[in-house]
Design goal:
Blueprint (H helix, E strand, L loop, with lengths): L12 H15 L3 H22 L23 E3 L4 E3 L1 H5 L10 E3 H52 L4 H44 L4 H19 L16 H69 L2 E2 L8 H4 L33 E2 L4
Antiparallel strand pairs: 1-2, 1-3, 4-5
């Protein structure tokens, strides 16, 4: 820059200096400040762009990495080992066998980049839209709950403070459940955004090695987020909030009808008790009559069976055998003419014409 010529002092030198200083500050602004302003404007543009698309991060500068075995730049990628390698690794080792599948860095980068990008567009973005839609549904349900709550609160505020307190507790429980569901969905949504940002971060790096090293992890995260289920059904409803005031009013309306029903029941019960006392006396007399008749019948049966039993207990006067079917019409060996009848088995003696007839004579035994 040309040197500024010296000026002579004058009475209005202060005013001239102030004006010259202001003009000079505008014209002779340092280049560093201009670059700083340009960089700040560029950062603001990047921030605005990131707000519209969360998957596109700002550019990142990295250092070029080299092979740890041969100190040469990476040119290939081992698909089996998931490691970037140099040309000497394919010749001298350790990636010089048929077990290693070797591709160029650019080919592996393009292949995996296309695969992950296709997976993001085909699956992850759809899952993201579903999560956002579910969040909107839950938020709409929250608004419904709040609206119903305000209606119930308007009716209950004038009468019962306890009803309002219980209503707020129920609302808090429902909102807590729904807020927890939103937080879970938002966590999954943030994870999806994080995966997308990580992918585009690595994609923008000139060196493909970091991307290839993390591509498997990114793909696994995508598969996990796509397969992870989320709850679609909203089990919290606004219409089961407690309506104690309405229920109390209905109970008061039913109280008079219930009182009339109770009086009618009491009257019926009294009549039934009165009739029961009369019926008990009648039933008691009838039971006594039937019991006496039953006892008479049983006494007759006892006499009959006792006589039958006595009949079965008869024995023969001569031989002492019991009156059974096999002896009734058989010959009595002891009833003979020449035999003395000193030993007998019955109290009742048979007629004289029975002696010596070889027939049995049954009578009551001697006890």
């Amino acid at each position: 820059m040309d040197p500024v010529p010296k000026k002579k002092k004058s009475v209005s030198s202060k005013q001239d200096k102030s004006q010259a200083g202001s003009v000079k500050s505008k014209k002779q602004q340092p280049p560093g400040e201009i670059l700083e302003q340009q960089h700040s404007q560029h950062d603001l543009q990047i921030d605005d762009h990131q707000q519209h698309d969360p998957f596109i991060p700002p550019p990142i500068q990295t250092q070029v990495k080299v092979c740890i075995h041969h100190n040469l730049p990476f040119q290939f990628f081992c698909e089996a080992c998931e490691d970037p390698i140099c040309q000497q690794c394919t010749i001298l080792g350790p990636h010089n066998t048929q077990l290693h599948r070797i591709n160029r860095l650019s080919d592996s980068f393009k292949l995996r980049c296309a695969k992950i990008e296709e997976s993001i567009k085909a699956n992850l973005l759809g899952k993201r839209e579903q999560l956002l839609a579910q969040i909107h549904r839950i938020e709409y349900r929250i608004e419904e709950i709040k609206y119903v709550k305000t209606i119930i609160e308007r009716d209950a505020r004038a009468e019962f403070g306890g009803v309002l307190e219980r209503l707020k507790q129920s609302e808090g429980q429902k909102l807590a459940i729904l807020s927890h569901e939103i937080s879970e969905l938002q966590r999954d949504l943030d994870k999806i955004n994080e995966v997308g940002s990580q992918f585009y971060d690595l994609k923008e790096i000139p060196d493909p090695c970091p991307f290839l090293l993390k591509s498997r992890n990114i793909y696994d995260q995508i598969e996990y987020m796509v397969a992870k289920p989320f709850k679609v059904q909203i089990d919290v409803y606004p219409y089961d909030l407690p309506r104690e005031l309405t229920e109390l009013r209905l109970q008061l309306q039913k109280a008079s009808a219930q009182q009339q029903l109770i009086e009618f029941k009491n009257e019926i019960i009294w009549k039934l008790l009165s009739e029961k006392q009369i019926d008990e006396e009648t039933i008691k007399q009838e039971l006594e009559r039937q019991a006496s008749e039953e006892i008479n019948e049983w006494s007759k049966l006892v006499d009959k069976f006792s006589q039958e039993l006595k009949r079965q207990q008869l024995v023969c006067y001569y031989c002492g055998c019991k009156m059974e079917k096999q002896y009734v019409n058989s010959v009595c060996a002891q009833n003979r003419q020449e035999q003395d009848y000193d030993k007998v088995f019955c109290n009742e003696q048979p007629p004289q014409n029975y002696h010596g007839t070889s027939r049995h004579y049954f009578a009551d035994p001697i006890l």
